[in-house]
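Q: Hi! First time doing this. I have a protein sequence and I read that you can turn it into a structure. Is that right? Here it is:
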Amino acid sequence: MPQGILYHHVMPPQRPNIPPHQRPRPNRRPSSDAQFERLAQRPIAPEPNQRLPKIVSKSGVWHPFLFRRQLGDFDPNSQPGDLVEITNASGATQGFGLFNPKAEISVRLLRTGLNRPDEAWWSERLESAVSLRREFLKLDTVTDAYRVVHAEADGLPGLVVDKFGDVLVAECFSLGMYQRAEAILTMLEPMCGTKYGVIRPGPNSEDHEGFAAAPTGSEGLPAKAVVREFDTQFRVDFTGGHKTGFYCDQRDNRKQLATFCGGKTVLDLCSYTGGFAVQALKLGQATEVTGVELDESAAALARENAKLNKVKLSVVQADAFAYMRDMLRNGRKYDVVVLDPPKLIRSRDEIEEGRRKYYDFNRLAMQLVAPDGLLLTCSCSGLLDIAEFSKIVCAAPEVGRRVQVVMKGGAAADHPIATNCPESEYLKTMWLRLE
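A: Yes, that's right. Below is the predicted 3D structure, encoded as structure tokens:
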């Protein structure tokens, strides 16, 4: 797949209809006149004899993120997205990373030591990532929808890639990774046995990285695909949707939840395209399941997924807060409640506001759980660790109601955690029994 000619614009993702009280506060950066030049695709690695710009790190390179405040002098000729050589104050090489002076995370570390990341290094990193999923975890036996590259945990900070059948979807959280995305997908295709690719900028890329771009897809890309997960089918829309189009990280939690749903009533809040709701019916044999989703296109896809699996799912397009309050006024209770909201904390400025939202969400959701029922509550905010999330959840029950934490968990194993990047443990789940 030659670089730069087979990828073209696909329909940009629809903006989710998020009410004002759930919207993240903007942190706008002015757009640059060189915006479009920055989006040009680059080779995956520079020529071996090409001189690299140098940047001084004042704090070492143990973490894959180097923030602007941690950097000293840097080559004034360096360009956004460049591969750079990281040195200490004495000029000794410490490692190599992708540079963006417009981003708060100004360098994403690729490799420590004296050897620059060449094409062979990129190939080795990608092969290692694919091997974990296909050979070690043997995911192909249970699903054809899984994460292939998980950013920092696979040594490729700023990049996630998900596989959906014959399609690879790359989400780029750094400009440097966006500029190399076509070359990366070209390398990954034969490793994964896929035919098509999609490239998306990460959420808030204009605010965080100083660039904006519409999603692009390779020649012949289908608008949708049907994937399998434990013999359940889901339709993934490549022309819209959030993130890469489907939440592979909750795969094992969906299966686990189904074991609690036999003959039960289930409420799936912020249900997106119906992952938990459909599995509660298909695998769990629940008697009644309601999915609540504000985004119109996601709610429509949830209905499609129910029809695809021949299960009866009630999908309500509504704000989850408003719906919960309506159900409380009506005295409605559910045997099983799933609360999986979108990321409520996107930056350190939003931590306090996000904590309040998590508390309010959980306090309302707990009141809808029937006696001896189950609440599965989740947070995908990387800036909120499991200890803090636990404190919020444990403070949320009504006075006098006994709540037991029966399990804690996180993302499926294709979303590993980097030992030098605690933020990569982003998904937290708590399973609560409410007497």
